[in-house]
Design goal:
Length: 286
């Protein structure tokens, strides 16, 4: 997995690029009608229900735009929210608050939606030993935010990108000439390049499960698009040789049944690609 330093760098890049994209050569709406020295205060108002996410990110945005802005935090990331709640107040230069407003709202609305959906999945798994994972099916350019939101919602992060874990999926296996060849080539590559990377291998049926188990060095087997019965059989075959992960169209109505098959993890792209933003507003305080 990526280090904290790598993750923090991703967040910094997101903020810098988003501010560049939004402000350009100036926030002319604010420059036109608000004095440069004007001071103001605004509140982050919740107009929806769910799990709050993005407060810490908002603090980073405000600090990037203007280190003199002051944040009075009321609610923390991971808090259960309802219509009418106030997450925080921000005070200081009015132009600075307005420069940061849209990025803060865009990020927090999406992050809160992802955290809310993740939390729903986590609650459905209560009483089992299965954890929910995100995927790389994220919005280009803001993956760090979306994976951060999954953690806030109680889920776990899968690999961050192509560089921090090896995942041999169907196309890798087919292009490499089969499962065994793909695994052996991968282990050789890791040794030659002195890499510390875990290997996940996707299985499309029980015969592929058996073939994977003939090789050593596999960290986790991805049991992809199996039905319940075959998933249970796959888990029994794998035993404690490596970890197990179910994936493939698993949703709110099926996730509990897959967990009851005994898998360690369930991954779902829906956590990040199928959410509706929570309704949040930044409102001036008189």
């Amino acid at each position: 997995m990526i280090t904290k330093a790598q993750f923090d760098k991703e967040i910094d890049l997101i903020i810098a690029n988003a501010i560049r994209e939004d402000i350009g050569d100036g926030d002319h709406s604010s420059l036109a009608c608000i004095p440069k020295s004007a001071e103001g205060k605004a509140k982050l108002l919740v107009k929806d229900e769910g799990i709050l996410a993005g407060v810490m990110f908002a603090k980073k945005v405000f600090n990037f735009v203007d280190p003199d802005l002051q944040i009075e935090q009321i609610l923390a990331d991971g808090a259960t929210i309802k219509n009418g709640d106030i997450a925080f107040y921000v005070s200081g230069n009015s132009q600075s608050i307005l420069k940061a407003e849209r990025l803060v709202l865009n990020a927090m609305q999406r992050m809160s939606a992802i955290a809310t959906k993740t939390n729903q999945f986590v609650k459905l798994l209560e009483g089992t030993n299965t954890k929910v994972l995100d995927t790389r099916k994220t919005t280009p350019g803001i993956r760090a935010l979306e994976k951060w939101a999954v953690k806030i919602g109680g889920g776990e992060n899968h690999r961050f990108a192509l560089y921090d874990m090896i995942m041999l999926k169907d196309n890798h296996i087919d292009f490499a000439g089969g499962i065994t060849k793909a695994i052996e080539k991968t282990k050789k590559y890791i040794a030659e390049h002195d890499l510390d990377l875990k290997i996940i291998v996707e299985a499309r049926d029980l015969n592929e499960i058996k073939e994977i188990l003939n090789s050593t060095g596999v960290y986790r087997i991805l049991i992809d698009n199996f039905n319940y019965a075959d998933t249970r059989e796959a888990v029994a075959l794998i035993g404690d040789q490596c970890l197990t992960e179910s994936s493939g169209g698993i949703n709110e109505t099926t996730i509990r049944k897959y967990a009851e098959c005994g898998v360690n993890y369930i991954s779902s792209g829906a956590l990040t690609h199928s959410v509706y933003n929570l309704d949040l507003s930044l409102k001036a305080v008189e």
